[in-house]
Amino acid sequence: MVTETIQRRKTMQTYDDGPLGYEQQASPAAPARPKQRRGTGGIGRALSIGLLGAAFAASTVVGGVVGALVTVQVLGHGSTPAPIASIPALLTQTSAPPQAGSTLAASIYAAANPSVVQIAVGSASPRGGSGSGSGFVVDNRGYILTNQHVVQGAGSISVRFAGGETRTGQVVGSDRANDLALVKVDLPAGVRALPLGDTSTLAPGDLAVAIGSPFGLAGTVTQGIVSAVDRSWQPSNGPVRRNLIQTDAPINPGNSGGPLLNARGEVVGINAMIESPVQGSVGIGFAISVNVAKALLPQLETGANIEPVWMGVSGTTGDGGALLQSVILGGPASAAGLRAGDVITKIDGVGVRDVGDIARLITGKRVGDTIRVTYLRGGQEQTAQITLRAWPNS
Fold first, then answer.
1. How many angstroms separate the CA atoms of 165 and 142, rounded?
2. Is 62 a domain residue?
3. Domain final residue pick, 255, 278, 306
4. Cα–Cα distance between 119 and 102 in angstroms, integer?
């Protein structure tokens, strides 16, 4: 299936979570009306990011589509090996369709909501704020899956269940490349893991049900369809997200980390982002494929903190390779001697036609790995050794 990268013109991209920008009252039972704060990240700040357009804020790394010119930030993700036997029940569980109710969505909600949680986050910094997101029980030993950006920088994590029980959570592992995190708690009696589906059979038009805590409103359910599969999307200054599910099920700030479920009540995605010209949902939301999460869970359980790798270049298709339009000063490529105007033709001996090939060839590389880059400068072929670094936080 051809992966399509979302075109972005004069739009606002936001993560659909509250923890980095929506203040909560001390009691999670009666959340305050959220107060919006704009920013690019950190506890107490909204992740609202302006993109390509007249009002676009200056940035050193950007990817997008402008006419026929394709410009993408070149990066790769941490490796995602096949699941291992450390969580066997998690990776094999299935479920029958939910019991009949007044509507299918009502039946799915009744079965799934007890396993969906509201996550309240306190900042590790004295100057930080607080906020909340969502998550769901993914393993009966007390593991909860959520987004990495929900718990990033957290000094304290409080997990509130649908029955009102509150537990203290600890981050076990995280993957910034795919925006996933695993949190451990002591489960209340009777709370069970949600069954995980298979996104390889997911198709546009399939039912999609989202559960979470938009704007602090715990236990909110919305219904829509799968609008598209295998999307690619890049937040400004952030790593490219691949294999995303696009849905029109309304998701808003605070839904981040909550489940997207199919008609059988199985989790098919982890709600993560929205694309909107204004703050809030307008029917274009994105969820991380549960198949990606299933492949990563064994690593997260063992405490892995996976980082996306970074070359520090952006470019477009050039004559015979990937034409570098920008090389970040002090970045990995700059340190190896590359500069704007160079045309990369090979990485580790494999031919490069465009910047998309660069991204694919460094996917699976680890921070600290070195790649051999062949490039043209003034028509002359040269080579360089580039040591990959973690994608910068800013």
1. 14
2. no
3. 306
4. 29
Rounded Cα gap, residues 344 and 149, in angstroms: 33
**Residues taking part in catalysis:** 149, 179, 256
| In contact, 122 and 336? CB cutoff 8 Å | no
Tokens (6 digits) for 112: 């799934």
Q: What letters, b where the CB count within 10 A reaches 16 and e where it falls short, cover 94-105?
A: eeeebeeeeebb
List of residues 6+ apart from 348 with CB closer than 8 A: 361, 371, 372
- Residue 66 in domain: no
Residue 134: Cβ-neighbour burial (10 angstroms; 0-12, 13-18, 19+): buried
Can you spell out the DSSP letters for 225-263? Answer: EEEEEEEEE--TTSPPEEEEEEE-S---TT-TT-EEE-T
Bridge partners of residue 346, in order along the sequence: 351, 374
Same domain, residue pair 290 and 341: no
pLDDT per position in the chain (394 positions), as tens? Answer: 433 333 343 343 445 454 333 323 333 344 443 333 332 233 333 333 222 122 222 222 222 222 223 333 444 444 444 443 344 444 445 555 555 568 999 999 999 999 999 999 998 777 766 778 999 999 999 999 999 999 998 999 999 999 999 999 999 999 988 999 999 999 999 999 999 999 999 999 999 999 999 999 999 999 999 999 999 877 666 677 788 999 999 999 999 999 999 999 999 999 998 876 666 667 799 999 999 999 999 999 999 999 889 899 988 999 899 999 999 999 999 999 999 999 999 999 999 998 888 888 887 788 999 999 999 999 999 999 999 999 887 6
Is the same domain home to 300 and 195? yes
Task: Give just the sign of the alpha carbon dihedral 337, 341, 344, 345.
Answer: negative
75 in any annotated domain: no
